[in-house]
Structure formats: structure tokens, C-alpha cells
């Protein structure tokens, strides 16, 4: 029996080596994070003097908003909430723009159904902000008029783990897929469950296609095939739930990180 791990599989099927992608498993743990390290749902930081971002998209529940007067301290627009902040040192394989050393992921904590064009999507609107740590200062985000509790992450510290990730079987050509599945069967495992698409909160690597067949994600601005950047997993720490308690995948355009992100629920 050969070592039933991704490394053992690549040793047995060398042609798979070109499909390995670097990834970082985040391993969130519900403890109070500091403002200085990578964190999930941690203290808010933002460029000094810059306005806090708000959601500009529509929401399915907007039509049912109570017409009663609102607390004047609560903004009419919905303020985005901090989801993930990661330092470049913890995920060096990401496509960091020149001068950026912090990635902040924010989202609108409400469902949206009209932000992905013809592609079905019903979940939070996501924004990526590539920034410099020395330009950020503590900030208290504005209070918003409405949010879904399932999109408000419990603050967590992270234990980043660097790995090499193999793709879902749907991403492989026929011969390599067969070879990978035969290796797994010989060694008492399943390729798609045990060797491909490492689970959990993940930066980089490959997305899983656990509830649909592969549906390529193309950039809405230029048409380029987008690349997986982040997997958000439901449950446990930090106690968020996306889709039908599944996974949210965030994709970026390889041609221009400024193009709108691609979103997919599995």
C-alpha cells in the first residue's frame, strides 16, 4: 500500500504535480484576536480618514422594510462587516499587489440575489481590499439597520497551515482523473473526499464542487477564467452559515484584481 496522501498520490502519478496549488488552511479558533495579526471577525482596521464601505447592492428584504422611524445613529445604508484579515506573511502565495501586505475581506451581512448576473447566487456581497498595514488604524464600523446573524462571524484567531492542494476530480482530464481514483481505491480512500480540495476555511488552492458539477467562473468584466481565492466553510468556529450550510467560494480575476469578485455556493 502506498502512502494515501496527496504527496503519495503525486509520487505515484507524477503528471498530477502540475495541478498542485499552494494553499493556506486558516484553522479558526474562537479566541479574542488582536488588531496586529491575521484574524477572522477581528477588530476593525481601516485607512485613517477614509469612509467605511457600505453595500450599494439591492437586498431581497428591502421591499419589506418596516417604515417606522429608525434610530438616527443607525445608517440607512448597510455597513459592511469585517470577515477576514490576513497578513502577507501568513499566505505568501496569494497574488499580492505591489506594496500590499494585508488583505481584508468584508461582506454585507444580508442575502443578495442579483449580483452574479445569470449565475445563481443567494448570499452575502463580498469585497476584497488589498492594503498596507502601516496605513491602517483602529475603526469602529457604523451600525447597520439590518443583518443576518449567520453572517456575523465570532471573532477568531487563526493558525495558518501551508499545504499543497489538488483539484476536484471535475477539474482533471479523464486519464488523470481515472489514475487518481484508482490510486485512492487501491489504498482504501476516495480521491474526492480524502485527497482533493482540502476542506475548511482556506486561502488559495482549489474549490470543491460538492453539490454541483464543475461550473467555470469567468470574470464579468473581461471574460478571463477566474481563480479560487477563498473558501468560507459553514459551522464550528467562527459560527457562520452560507448557502444550505455549505461553502462559499470567492474567485478573483487573474488579469486584474480590481475586477469584481466571482462568488459560488456549494
Q: SS-based structural class?
A: mainly beta
Q: Categorize the overall geometry.
A: globular
- Mean pLDDT over all positions: 92
Radius of gyration: 20 Å
Count up the helices: 3
Q: What order do the strands of the largest sheet run in, or round the barrel if closed?
A: 11-1-12-13-14-15
Beta-strand level of the residues, as a percent range? 25-35%
Low-confidence stretches: none
Distance between the first and last residues' Cα? 33 Å
The arrangement of helices and strands along the chain is: HEEEEEEEEEEEHHEEEE
**Count of individual beta strands:** 15
Tell me the helix content: under 10%
Largest sheet: 6 strands, antiparallel
Provide structural commentary.
With 266 residues, the protein is mainly β. The protein is 9% helix and 27% strand.
Protein topology:
Elements: H1 6-12, E1 21-25, E2 39-40, E3 45-47, E4 54-55, E5 78-79, E6 81-87, E7 102-112, E8 123-131, E9 136-138, E10 156-157, E11 161-165, H2 174-186, H3 191-195, E12 202-204, E13 227-233, E14 247-252, E15 262-265
Antiparallel strand pairs: 1-11, 1-12, 2-6, 2-10, 3-9, 4-5, 6-7, 7-8, 12-13, 13-14, 14-15
Which descriptors would you attach to this protein?
single chain; 266 residues; mainly beta; 6-stranded antiparallel β-sheet; 5-stranded antiparallel β-sheet; 15 strands; 9% helix
In short:
It contains three helices and 15 strands. It has helices at residues 6-12, 174-186, 191-195, and strands at 21-25, 39-40, 45-47, 54-55, 78-79, 81-87, 102-112, 123-131, 136-138, 156-157, 161-165, 202-204, 227-233, 247-252, 262-265. The longest helix is centred in the last third of the chain and has 13 residues, at 174-186.
